[in-house]
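Sanity check record (used in CI):
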Amino acid sequence: DTLEWDERGPVEAMPIATVAVCTRDRPEDLRRCLDALMLLPDDGQEYVVIDNCPATDASSELIKNYPKVRYVREDVPGSSAARNRALREAKHEFVAFTDDDAAPDPNWLRSLLRNFRDPRVMCVTGLVMPLELETEAQEWFEWYSPHGRGFERRVLDGALCNPLIVHILGVSASMAVRKSLIDYIGLFDEALGAGTPTVGGEDSELFARILRAGYRIVYEPRALSWHRHRRTWEELQKTLHGYGIGVYAFWTRLFVINREFSVPLLAWGWLRYKQIPELIASLRKQPDAVPRDLLWAQFRGCISGPMAYFASRKLLQKIKGSNE
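Expected output for Glycosyl transferase, family 2:
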């Protein structure tokens, strides 16, 4: 069940989108991202930068050099709050998200938007490749936990597939959604994501809700973006620790809020068939085994994921209560 289109079709048929960049105190990354976005073909899209709880005015000053870009400050911390603000601010039905540490290819936006010609498609994700592979940490990240999901286009139909198997989709650093998902699916869970105690998991949780509602998600590898992997071993450990927190926080949300009662089996399967075999291979020092310190960092994150989700919800209630 695939979608087809004429690559040589008229540009006039292309939907118009809002391109949203979520950032926080990384002006050099943001500059590279915006420079890449300015190379996109001009199909009438608008550009919005959501500056999440900035500690300085560096990003707002930088954006003055980009007249096509609109600056919006969001003071509720977290990538989900930033993306929700982008959805509310968007002037167009289609909203394409990228992060400040990504640099989209010139064909990125058009490749995402073409897939929305199917009205059942609620979300499209793209291929994310490494911007550079210059350090051992960057090579291990790309080998063990890449953002890319391969070079084959796939369509996941919520009416036909398991809505919990979302790991084969992409990530929110390269993603487009319909703004109307606010009405049909709801917003991102603001207790999940970078900038919160849960560190991540917000994109996976949204994907699961989209599929559970019976809509489609397309993984489109032609929508290419380049991601700056962290250069040092300490940064890689921190990243994998955060991924562990995010995965188990996401599963906790699915179990407690979404009432997905098969989640414990999913978590047990991941432990039995992935984490334990990887740890055994590392202890035996098998070729290409993942270093133990990376596995341990991720495992510690997994253990703390459930409590991180509840702590994040409590913190979010406190923040929003103080802002009222």
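The longest helix spans residues 292-323. If this sentence no longer matches the regenerated tokens, the check is flagged for review.
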